[in-house]
C-alpha cells in the first residue's frame, strides 16, 4: 500500500463532477492548486488528500457518505483494491475479536481513524460490508463477480439447504455468500488470486461462517482433495489454454474419462463431480459452446450415460460476463455406480427472457423434473425432459434451443391480428400523451440545490439504501419494491427474505432511485403497501416544499447522471450529489405534471416496442411454417 494515495486529472474531474477541461483550467488559474506528486508530464498524479482539501476550500467537493470517502482513499492508496480491502478487513476482524494486534500493514495508519469511525457506527462486520459493496461495483480493474441474482439461482438449483458447499473458483466469494444466504452450514472455496481468496475468507470470518477459502489452482493443486460435500457451485474461468492437461492426464478426478486439452470447462465439471457425495448436486456456469463442441462429445456422452448430467439451462444474455453471450448452467448429480441411469435429461431454453422473470420458472421446472426424473416434463418453447437416447446421437449436442419442440399455434392469424390492433391503438395515442413544451425565452435559468442540501433544509428526507441483514419478518405476502421493478416501471414484485435487513414502508409520493443501474432512474411511488427493497435510495419530499413528480423528473437528467455517478464509473450513483432546480411550488407542480406525462409516454413507447417485436416474430414464424400467407392484394 502506498504512503500517500494519488489521483489522476481524470479522476479529479469525476470527483468534482466536471469535465477534464475544468481541471486543466483550475491548474492554470489557481496558483494554490496542488502540484503533481508523481506520474508523467502527460498524465500527472496528485495527492488525493491535498486535492480534496483544495476542492473543499473552493466549494467544489460534493458531500460524500463516510463509506464512500473511505473507499475512495483506500482504492487510491492501493495498487490492488482487493489487497487494500483485505488489509482493512484484517484490521476489522482483529477489532471484532477484541484485538488490535491484527494490524496487517503499517502504511494503513492514515486511514485507521476513518475505519474506526465507520466501525463505531456500523460495527466491524457492517463496515466491511459497506466497503465490500463499493469494491463489488463494476469499475476499471475490478474482477467480474457473479451477480447475486445469478448466484442465488445457482444455489437454488443445487438444493443446498443446510448442507456443505464448495466453490473451487471462488473469486471474491459471491457464490459462497449466496450459499450462506440459503442456509448452508459450512462453505469452502479455492481461488487462484491470493487477494480475492483472502477477501472471501475474511467475509466468512467476519460473519462467523464455518468454512475455509484457500489460495491456489484448483485443477493443479486441489486444496480439498478427498473432501466430499453436499453441493459444488462454480463459475469457472472460460477458455483457459494452459489448465494443466499435460500433467493431469490420468488424474483420478476424471471419473468419466480423460478431459481433452481444448475442453477445460469439462475438466471443471469432472472436478466438481469428484467432490460430491453420492446424490449431491453441482451447478456450473458454462459458455454455450461446451454443449456442442466436437472435442467434448465423448465426455458429454459419458456424463449422460452414467446419469451424472441432469440438466442444461440456457440463460438470457447479459446475466454475467461476458455479457453479450447467453451462458448456460449445467446441473450435475453424483450418481451411484450401481444405480440405473435416468432415462431423461432436462433442457431449458430461457435465453429469450429476463432472469428476474424466468428464474422462478427455471427453478419450478427443475424441481418438478428432479421429483420425477423419468416423467414427461414439457413446456412448449421453454423446457423439455428429453430422452437420453435421443441426445446420444452423432453430435451429442445439448444446446437447449435445438431440442425444443416448435410452439404450435402461436403464429395464428387471429393472434397476429390482435397484436397488430393493440400496437396500432398504442401508436395512435402517442401524440396526445407527449406533453406540449416550448423553448424558454431567456434560455436556461434558475439556481440549483443538491439533494444533500435539500435534505439539510428539510425539503426532503433521504432514507436507505436498505442494508442486508436479519430483521423481524414482515407479514407474509408483503411485497418489496426491487431495483428491477423500478427500472421496468412496474409494481413491487419482491418478497422479504433472510437477507432483508430493514423494513421501510413506502408511501404515495415517495421517490425511489436505484444505487446501481445502467442509467440514473427515478420513479414516483403511486400505491401504498410495499417495502423499500435493497440497493434503492428513498427520497421522501416534504409536500409543502417539493413536488414529487418535479423531483423525480429533475433527478433523471443526463447532467445528474454525470454529476451523481461515482468515481469508479457511471453505474453507481450517489444521489446526494444530484442537483434540483430551485422553483416555486406552483412552478414545480406545472413541471411535475409534464414529467408525469413524459413517464406515461415512455411506458407507452416501451410497450409499443415490445408489441412491435412480437408482431415481427409472429409474422415471420407464421410465414415460414405456412400458417400465414402473403395477401396478394397488397
UniProtKB/TrEMBL annotation:
<keyword id="KW-0808">Transferase</keyword>
<dbReference type="Pfam" id="PF02384">
    <property type="entry name" value="N6_Mtase"/>
</dbReference>
<dbReference type="InterPro" id="IPR052916">
    <property type="entry name" value="Type-I_RE_MTase_Subunit"/>
</dbReference>
<dbReference type="GO" id="GO:0032259">
    <property type="term" value="P:methylation"/>
</dbReference>
<keyword id="KW-0489">Methyltransferase</keyword>
<dbReference type="InterPro" id="IPR003356">
    <property type="entry name" value="DNA_methylase_A-5"/>
</dbReference>
<dbReference type="InterPro" id="IPR029063">
    <property type="entry name" value="SAM-dependent_MTases_sf"/>
</dbReference>
<protein>
    <submittedName>
        <fullName>N-6 DNA methylase</fullName>
    </submittedName>
</protein>
<dbReference type="GO" id="GO:0003677">
    <property type="term" value="F:DNA binding"/>
</dbReference>
<dbReference type="GO" id="GO:0008170">
    <property type="term" value="F:N-methyltransferase activity"/>
</dbReference>
<feature type="domain" description="DNA methylase adenine-specific">
    <location>
        <begin position="144"/>
        <end position="354"/>
    </location>
</feature>
Amino acid at each position: 500500500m502506498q504512503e500517500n494515495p494519488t489521483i489522476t486529472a481524470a479522476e479529479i474531474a469525476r470527483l468534482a463532477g466536471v469535465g477534464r477541461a475544468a481541471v486543466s483550467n483550475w491548474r492554470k488559474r489557481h496558483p494554490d492548486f496542488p502540484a503533481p506528486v508523481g506520474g508523467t508530464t502527460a498524465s500527472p498524479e496528485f495527492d488525493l488528500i491535498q486535492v480534496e482539501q483544495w476542492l473543499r476550500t473552493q466549494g467544489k467537493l460534493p458531500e460524500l457518505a463516510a463509506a464512500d470517502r473511505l473507499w475512495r482513499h483506500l482504492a487510491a492508496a492501493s495498487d490492488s483494491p482487493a489487497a487494500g480491502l483485505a488489509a482493512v478487513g484484517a484490521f476489522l476482524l482483529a477489532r471484532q475479536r477484541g484485538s488490535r494486534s491484527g494490524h496487517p500493514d503499517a502504511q494503513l495508519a492514515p486511514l485507521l481513524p476513518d475505519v474506526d469511525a465507520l466501525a463505531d457506527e456500523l460495527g466491524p462486520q457492517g463496515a466491511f460490508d459497506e466497503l465490500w459493496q463499493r469494491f463489488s461495483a463494476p469499475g476499471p480493474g475490478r474482477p467480474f463477480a457473479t451477480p447475486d441474482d445469478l448466484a442465488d439461482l445457482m444455489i437454488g438449483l443445487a438444493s443446498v439447504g443446510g448442507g456443505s458447499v464448495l466453490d473451487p473458483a471462488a473469486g471474491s466469494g459471491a457464490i459462497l455468500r449466496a450459499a450462506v444466504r440459503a442456509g448452508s452450514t459450512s462453505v469452502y472455496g479455492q481461488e487462484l488470486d491470493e487477494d480475492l481468496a483472502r477477501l472471501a475468507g475474511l467475509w466468512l470470518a467476519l460473519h462467523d461462517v464455518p468454512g475455509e477459502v484457500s489460495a491456489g489452482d484448483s485443477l493443479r493443486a486441489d486444496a480439498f482433495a478427498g473432501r466430499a460435500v453436499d453441493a459444488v457451485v462454480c463459475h469457472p474461468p472460460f477458455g483457459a489454454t494452459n489448465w494443466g492437461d499435460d500433467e493431469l492426464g490420468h488424474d483420478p478426478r476424471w471419473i468419466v474419462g480423460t478431459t481433452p486439452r481444448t475442453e477445460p470447462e469439462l475438466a471443471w465439471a469432472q472436478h466438481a463431480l469428484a467432490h460430491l457425495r453420492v446424490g449431491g448436486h453441482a451447478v456450473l456456469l458454462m459458455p454455450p459452446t461446451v454443449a456442442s463442441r466436437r472435442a467434448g462429445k465423448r465426455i458429454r456422452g459419458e456424463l449422460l450415460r452414467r446419469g451424472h448430467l441432469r440438466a442444461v439451462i440456457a440463460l438470457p444474455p447479459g446475466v454475467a460476463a461476458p455479457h453479450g453471450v447467453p451462458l448456460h448452467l449445467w446441473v450435475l448429480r453424483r450418481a451411484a455406480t450401481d444405480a440405473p441411469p435416468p432415462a431423461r435429461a432436462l433442457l431449458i431454453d430461457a435465453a429469450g427472457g429476463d432472469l428476474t422473470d424466468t428464474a422462478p420458472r427455471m427453478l419450478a421446472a427443475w424441481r418438478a423434473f428432479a421429483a420425477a426424473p423419468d416423467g414427461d416434463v414439457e413446456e412448449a418453447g421453454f423446457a423439455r425432459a428429453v430422452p437420453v437416447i435421443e441426445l446420444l446421437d452423432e453430435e451429442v449436442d445439448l444446446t437447449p434451443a435445438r431440442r425444443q419442440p416448435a410452439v404450435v399455434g402461436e403464429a395464428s392469424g387471429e393472434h397476429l391480428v390482435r397484436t397488430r390492433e393493440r400496437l396500432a391503438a398504442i401508436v395512435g395515442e402517442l401524440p396526445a400523451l407527449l406533453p406540449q413544451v416550448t423553448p424558454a425565452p431567456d434560455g436556461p435559468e434558475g439556481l440549483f440545490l443538491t439533494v444533500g442540501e435539500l435534505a439539510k433544509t428539510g425539503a426532503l428526507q433521504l432514507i436507505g439504501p436498505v442494508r442486508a441483514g436479519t430483521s423481524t419478518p414482515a407479514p407474509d405476502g408483503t411485497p418489496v419494491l426491487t431495483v428491477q421493478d423500478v427500472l421496468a416501471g412496474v409494481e413491487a414484485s419482491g418478497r422479504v427474505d433472510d437477507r432483508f435487513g430493514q423494513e421501510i414502508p413506502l408511501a404515495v409520493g415517495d421517490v425511489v432511485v436505484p444505487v446501481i443501474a445502467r442509467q440514473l432512474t427515478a420513479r414516483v411511488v403511486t400505491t401504498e403497501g410495499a417495502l423499500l427493497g435493497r440497493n434503492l435510495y428513498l427520497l421522501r419530499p416534504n409536500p409543502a416544499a417539493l413536488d414529487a413528480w418535479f423531483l423525480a423528473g429533475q433527478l433523471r437528467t443526463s447532467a445528474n447522471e454525470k454529476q451523481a455517478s461515482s468515481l469508479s464509473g457511471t453505474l453507481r450513483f450517489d444521489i446526494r450529489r444530484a442537483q434540483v432546480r430551485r422553483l416555486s411550488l406552483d412552478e414545480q407542480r406545472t413541471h411535475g405534471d409534464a414529467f408525469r406525462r413524459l413517464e406515461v409516454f415512455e411506458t407507452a413507447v416501451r410497450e409499443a416496442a415490445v408489441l412491435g417485436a412480437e408482431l415481427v416474430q409472429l409474422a415471420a414464424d407464421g410465414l415460414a411454417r405456412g400458417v400465414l400467407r402473403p395477401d396478394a392484394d397488397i
